[in-house]
Amino acid sequence: MPTRRLAVILVLCLCAPALLADTIHLSNGREVKCLISKESYATIEYRKAGMSSKQSVDVADVVSVEYSKTSADWREAMVLLDQGEMGKAASSFLAVADDDNREPHLRASALAQAGDALVTNGNYNDAIGVYDELLKKHPSTRHLARALLGKGQSLFYVRKLAEADAVLTQLKSDATSKGLGERWALDAEFLLLWSAEAQGKPDVVDGYKQLRASARANYPGIANKASLRMGRVHLENNQVRDAEALFDEIVLSRMHTSDDVVAGAYNGLGRCNFGRAQGLLSDGKADQALPYVHDALLDFLRVHVSYPGVRKEQAEALYFAGQCFLNLAAMDPEATQAEQRGQVLLKRCRDNFAGSEWAGLAASQR
Fold first, then answer.
1. Helix (H, G, I), strand (E, B), or coil: what is residue 123?
2. Among 85, 217, 226, 365, which is least packed by CB within 10 angstroms?
3. Cα–Cα dist 187/171, whole Å
4. Beta-carbon neighbour count of residue 96 at 10 Å?
5. Exposed, middle or buried, 193 (CB in 10 Å: 0-12/13-18/19+)?
6. Other beta carbons within 10 Å of 10
7. Distances from the Cα of 214 to the Cαs of 112, 218, 252, 350, in angstroms?
8. In this predicted structure, what is the pLDDT of residue 4?
């Protein structure tokens, strides 16, 4: 009996490393089951079960990492992410980052996750602080590029454009000199172009076109981000058909595009249809305008209902959906509840996005 019990224990011990293995997902589709010992912006070092020697993989080839040995705070944070509770998730990740008993690479990953969650939640100043902490405490982190991009993006959103440009330029340089990967250089270039657009600099559309061409084959998500901004520039210049073609292109490839870009495209399509409706109304062609109001309303409501996690697109969607309902109330005698629905959405815009451009406009509709 003791011999049999010892055999069972040995089997369990041999199986334990496999059961507790970290998983490194590579860009070629391969998975590496291992125990990670160290991470840097260049490589991840690990051991495979049954092997004494260390191995490594280039971070530029890594898509994601799943850790087997985490903590209750980490697991709670991952659940909160799935539920869309970004602020709460960030708090749980920060608790992991403050836990001295955790491995340095897990604590660094927790800071990166917290920063990204805060960006998604619209807490840009808090995100800047978290990324700064990550870069200070873990200067060689695997998440170096991610932290620089997140910081640059957050600085852009709080309109500290010169500071954003400096961080993004550093990321472009590091992407080459430290071998971080082409994707990060292209992402940095996109934000630099958007910053140039915000500053009214010339030749931005040409820059977006070049970026789109460079990214389309290997990074369609970045290409679509360039298309979204090109569409917005065209819309500002009243080139509605050109803008609409770009937004349609994004929607057609939405399965391969991030939610924030798809939501922006639907808002763009809504703006195209809403603008057409307003033009027809000003010409006294209400009957022709009505279908465009309906189409615009569907686009804006789709953003609000289907992409609630994309906070930066919500205020615009709510404002224009409210305007669409108010238009319907004035145009369609059968739309008896349109006025009330429009005011509800405008109030939601004012209450949930106070301080934004759209909340200010919604305040004039009381």
1. coil
2. 217
3. 9
4. 23
5. buried
6. 10
7. 27, 8, 20, 40
8. 54
Per the confidence metrics, is the pTM higher than 0.85? yes
Instruction: Report d(CA 306, CA 289) in Å as an integer.
Output: 26
CB 231 within 8 A of CB 243: yes
Would you state the pLDDT for residue 364? 84
> Domain extents for the chain?
22-69
> Among all chains, which residue has been given the structure tokens 């789709």?
302
Distance CA 237, CA 246 (A): 14
Contacts of 253 by beta carbon, 8 Å cutoff, 6+ apart: 220, 224
Residue 172's H or E segment, with its range, is helix 161-177
22-69: CATH topology is SH3 type barrels. (2.30.30)
Identity of the residue numbered 219? Y
Q: Which residues of the chain carry a pLDDT beneath 70? A: 1-20
Rounded CA separation 227/190 (Å): 11
The SS3 assignment for 62 reads: strand
